[in-house]
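fold-stage: in
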Amino acid sequence: MCVTTRWSQPKRRYAAVRQAVAWCNRGGSISAEPRINDRIRVPEVRLVGPSGEQVGIVPLAKALELAQEYDLDLVEVAANARPPVCKLMDYGKFKYESAMKAREARKNQAHTVIKEMKLRPKIDPHDYDTKKGHVVRFLKQGDKVKITIMFRGREQSRPELGYRLLQRLAEDVQELGFVESNPKQDGRNMIMVLGPHKKKTEAMAEAREAQAARKAERQGVSAVEEPAEEPAEA
């Protein structure tokens, strides 16, 4: 028992070392940050100048000397190349611009959302118009809409009522959306999914344009309403 305990820990350590070595051999990196300046430990690099010009293969000491002359950083941009490719740049500015681009990309990224609208088979006409208005708004925004018809009591024996209601709704909004999933019974409910004709990105772009147009129109009206200055008397 003592022998097993004594050897179990070294075996686990050796396994961890082998795993780390295998990861390094595959080109894995502990940090996602590139190596810069004195953290670069290779005899020579393929150097790219500040404007993207190819300087060529130079010793690391020469590359670091050029970085100091330009008051820039030496950044390793392709560590797996032989020799590694390094570029002269302002690394702080580069990180800031990269973060801003990533933030803008996340801001403009389109996420398709599935909205849900629930109806009853014997819905009141006014309620139907209200629910349809919500469906129209969702489709204009580029979102999918899951329509659920809820049956209660004896209504479960009349599934055709729900089917006809879903068909009517699909026809009323056919200019904005299409039937992505045909009506199907799911227990006491009947479900249909409507998909928008416009993509989410297109809907977002149109919404931004409409908002800009309304803002410009308000500014124009304000400018017109401002009283003109009377000419000064001689």
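fold-stage: in (second)
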Amino acid sequence: MRAGTPTVRWYIMATRNRKAPRSTLVLLVRHGETPTTGKVLPGRAPGLHLSEHGRGQAERVAERLAGVAVDAIHTSPLERTRETAEPTEARTGREAVVDPGLLECDFGEWTGEEISRLSRLKAWSTVQRAPSTFRFPGGESFTEMQARVVGAVDRARTAHEGGVVVCFSHADPIKAVLAHALGTHLDLFQRIVVSPCSVSAISYAPGQAPVVLTVNSTDEPLTGLRVS
């Protein structure tokens, strides 16, 4: 078939005009500071709310999203994550979907314990250096947590393919998602820093590996992260 025939010309034009599937941008936001941040493992215990500083951090996240066309907001059910999501809901007009898949790890018997005490336990070294082998007494393993949260993010991005999804969650779950996107073994996920109200961004394009665009971002505007 010659290049000048109508059929070939149509094929060339159709190929040129065909647009690649648009990537989906997932923004992972850790909740703001609480009165116990850095001191206690609160886990899934109810009744923990943002501090005054944490509420200010949540407002700042919403401000940083100015100019970002947010398609959906998903949040862990706990009070501190839902409160962090509220300013973003107000600014975007999007009501947050409460997703148990974004919950904090179940720390079991360690829930509510002071980190200073736990850090003296022999098991704490395993938590830091070989988390894939560890299960919290009476609670969840890190591998179970990672599978749960990655699954929640996958469902959210699939439901809003080509859009922008903001997920409010917790430090360890977000680090586990980032490690998965980076292709990093779970045993190394503790090397990732996720500060209160920081934003980490992952771009998901059909048929391609995820692209981590930013990690632990706490200052700059979030426009410009979108990739085609």
